[in-house]
Amino acid sequence: MSDESLPHRILACVESIPRGRVMSYGDIAEYCGANTPRLVGRVLSLDGGTVPWHRVVRSDGSLATHKSDRQRELLEAEGVRFRRERVDMRACRWDGAQS
DNA sequence: ATGTTGACACCGG
DNA sequence: TCCGGTGCCAACA
């Protein structure tokens, strides 16, 4: 399964997130076999923006630290439901296999 | 090898 | 629900 390197796997996973859906750093880490969610954030920062990074949020639904404004904008544009400053995980969480 | 840093997660108050 | 401290693991100087 891991014909690709871990960083590449993570990016592929993020790309697989459907429009209007989100995944937490921890979920992606587990799904891709990363030992720590911090690694996911690192990969995304290095990548720069060739993947829909805005669809990756914290496990509690809060947004990333520096780009939170931008991120919320993009997510709302995709129809993601917000509750104050947090994503409605209950409705938008994507596990990578859900229908 | 050791200490610092970070696009995180979890727990207690 | 909000805030702060603690635990994690990998990358870097």
Automatic annotation (TrEMBL):
Q: Does the keyword DNA damage apply?
A: yes
Q: Which organism is it from?
A: Jatrophihabitans cynanchi
Protein name (record) = MGMT family protein
In which domain of life is the source organism classified? Bacteria
Q: Where is the Methylated-DNA-[protein]-cysteine S-methyltransferase DNA binding domain?
A: 8-80
What does the organism's lineage look like at the top? Bacteria, Bacillati, Actinomycetota, Actinomycetes, Jatrophihabitantales
**Swiss-Prot/TrEMBL keywords:** DNA damage
Q: Does the keyword DNA damage apply?
A: yes
| Pfam families assigned | DNA_binding_1 (PF01035)
